[in-house]
Give the backbone structure.
Amino acid sequence: MSFKIVEQAEARLNRSELAVPGSRPEMFEKAAQSDVDVIFLDCEDAVAPDDKEQARRNIIQALNEIDWGTKTLSVRINGLDTHYMYRDVVDILEQGGERLDLIMIPKVGTAADVYAVDMLVTQIEAATKRKKRIGFEHIIETALGMANVDAIAAASPRNESLHFGVADYAASTKARTTVIGGPHPNYGVLTDRDEADPDAPRAYHWGDMWHYAISRMVVAARANGLRPIDGPFGDFSDPDGYRAQANRAGVLGCEGKWAIHPSQIALANELFSPSDAEVTKARRILEAMEQAQREGKGAVSLDGRLIDLASIRQAENLVQKADAIAGK
Ligand code: GLV
Ligand code: MG
């Protein structure tokens, strides 16, 4: 282990994160009643420019009046390049009461962007004597944000999570796709010709065009103790497509995925919860390692495979997640 200790952000369940436009207050109550882990009320891209002020007022009212239960509650403010952003922060924090947990910063590009919002939030918290400290979620969704992802991840003690915003990332990098998330038929490899049988059909394997971006973000997040979260999958009539995207993000280290439609909440909760078999196995690993340590051994075999001190850390992660879900 490095001498540097990576402080972990406040532990929260973040398997599913529901996007709710601030301009659609009729959706708020249903979101509050849902089984989602995190809700973000949106001031940004789901809200048309003419609706921005009303959306902000709707959000303030909802923060004060709706019973959000134990859900983590976030607001996605407008980008730092707009004139809406300062008022989003000032009005929502000054008038929205104590319920809000997080602010989501879209299109974050540099550590200085984080610093600027941190400064504003810190002043408002002090002036209003807010008891609960606001945390930050950052959407990595521009080439600039990805180029500076390590500095952004380290920029504030308020940071809790990084999110991969695939739609804006595609636009920013000029990727040749117009869908939100998912694979692309042109991103793939053709297997070699079979020299013994040159006319035999060759297989074409689709690749994951987002592999690098998600992996890069996961590394920056984990190196700074933050949660990496996969962003939207636009085709809400394709649960199998959603499953595939969520599973591959989970395998790479993401803890959850956005839901842009209520039907995606249950999928995310299921796919980002450890299965009973995984939890049972993790508990057996912990027992076996306890026994090994009592006997002065660093590594033992379990079910014909080597387990060692790293296995303890992997197993503890799983068991902690299962306990958090059970306690929800
Ligand atoms: C999310 O904001 C995205 O652009 O995908
Ligand atoms: Mg976006």
